[in-house]
Amino acid sequence: MISSFVTRFAAITITFFASSLFGAEKPTLRIAAQQTPAYASLWAAKELGWFDEEFDKVGATYTWNVFAAGPLVNEALSGGSADLGVSGDQPALTARSVGLDVIAVANLGSGERTIGLIAPPNSPIKTVRDIKGKKIAYGKGSTVHHLLDLLLRKNGLSKSDIEHINLGAEDIGAALDRGDIDAALTWDHTLTKLIAEGRARLIADGSGIKLTNRISYVTRSFAEKHPEVVAGYIRAIDRGAKWIEGDKEAAYRLLAPIFKLDHDTFFSVFANQKLYTKFNKRDIDEIRSVKDYLLKERLIRGDVDIDKFIAVEYIKKAGI
Fold it and tell me: Class assignment of domain 22-110+213-257+275-318?
């Protein structure tokens, strides 16, 4: 019995000293990113080494995977291959409404002119009212879905007045070129790029009616287990946002190759948005309004308590 006790004690002691010597396994934040200017502060933090710096301070590391859209980010989160994702407010709210236990821990920026309705340059469509009876493409359940509804109502039209085509942003340019659709709603950088290339003309954007928010949301289990890692992430993207806003030329040199934008298009895109990390009252009100719209249109399955969804305590912990 004594021998057995000694053996167990020795094993515990060896394990303790091994952990002390080699260190416990570092927590790893698995980031699901998107490669568009809307998430520029994220890319700046990565490219300039600020994620490495901030995570080193708290004894953590990270992995990085890129996805084409918010719904794919949600799949990674729900499938357990990511801990933190970035998207517009609508995909994030959709994830929360279907039971994915995520919380919004930081903003990434916003803008009213980052989304819009476009038509081919020679199209007879000149105003929103002209889309009546036309084929209009957009991503169902996306930020521009909400914009479409707002534009229709503002201009005395209803959803039944147009033919709805569900189409991703990556396919809209080609569909317009071929004449498969009459007009489309999309977001930057697709929006500004198609206009700059002369392949589309802006009919209306979100000015005065729709603010778009892009947010970082993380699984609650990760955030509660590793709050210091989440705070490190927030500090890194905040550094990225402030650096971009402070030096657009340097940001162009670093980020334009990533987003595949020429000089003029890059500056047009970034003139349409403001990058920042904190949630202000207008942001929260807009996210609440989006949730109400999604619920009313039955685009989400259940209600979302916005006060619990937006977890501002992590921004405070980051010291922002």
Answer: alpha beta
